[in-house]
Amino acid sequence: MGVKFSSYRTDDIDTNLKKMQIRPLDVMVTGVTGAGKSTTLNAFFQKTVAKVGDGVDPETMELDAYELNDFFRVWDTPGLGDGVEIDQIHKKKMIDLLYKTYTSDGKTYGFIDMVIIIVEGANRDMGTTYTLLNEVIVPNIQKDRILVVINQADVAMKGRHWNTNIQSPDSQLISFLEEQALSIQNRVREATGINILKPVYYSAEYGWNVQAVFDFIIDCMPKKRRILMK
């Protein structure tokens, strides 16, 4: 992977941050357990910053912040889908983070600027993703600050049509991923009532299309500080 994200499009990010009069951009990353949040963060940082769980026990039980550079900070959150009681604890942690504030010029603003929701390519647990959206994200942050991305493109068709020699999809898998992105966009609208932008798909494990995810975030940066939801 030729792009170094710590220095990628920093001028674009900085220009937007100056409009917002903040620094850095604070991005909350969430999703169901197993969607690949930690792998995604490691792909951004191009080194291991978040421990990846190979078993059933989720690795991210707390909120961890990682600074990519002076302009971009991500917050790794616990995934949902680990049982009712644990999920309730995790929901509260995420909602508390969404209501974390700072004060500037006598006004109070939300600390988190954007939320990235990671969906796993095999689409095994969309119900929990809808719960995450409906109960945690949508009521507590403006919808234009919510992005959905689809990880694990390499196993979206159970490993078929993924070229392991160059670690990228063939045209058939690309078509499938395009259809899946549109399907998730429609299903999220039906389940939550919000219109999200068409999700970007990628494989964090193999570094495929991660640059497109990063572009997606930068291109969708808000222009103003975040007012808290009432």
Description:
The protein has one domain (5-149, 204-219): Rossmann fold (3-Layer(aba) Sandwich), CATH 3.40.50. It is globular. With 230 residues, it is of the alpha/beta class. The chain is 34% helix and 19% strand. The strands form 3 sheets. It has a 6-stranded mixed β-sheet with strand order 2-3-1-6-7-10, with helices on both faces. Strands 4-5 form a two-stranded antiparallel sheet.
Write the layout of secondary structure elements.
Layout: H1 10-20, E1 25-31, H2 37-45, E2 64-67, E3 72-76, H3 84-98, E4 101-104, E5 107-110, E6 114-120, H4 126-137, E7 146-151, E8 162-163, E9 168-169, H5 171-192, E10 200-201, H6 210-219
Q: Can you name the CATH architecture? A: 3-Layer(aba) Sandwich
Please indicate the percent range of residues in DSSP E strands (runs of 2 or more): 15-25%
Which regions have little confidence, pLDDT < 50, spanning 5+ residues?
54-60
| Chain-averaged pLDDT | 92
Q: Tell me the major beta sheet.
A: 6 strands, mixed
CATH class: Alpha Beta
- Mind telling me the C-alpha Rg? 17 Å
The number of helices is 6
Estimate percent helicity.
25-40%
What is the general shape? globular
Stated plainly, the CATH topology is called Rossmann fold
Number of strands: 10
Distance between the termini: 43 Å
- Count of discrete domains: 1
Order of helices and strands: HEHEEHEEEHEEEHEH
- What would you call the structural class? alpha/beta
Strand order of the largest sheet: 2-3-1-6-7-10
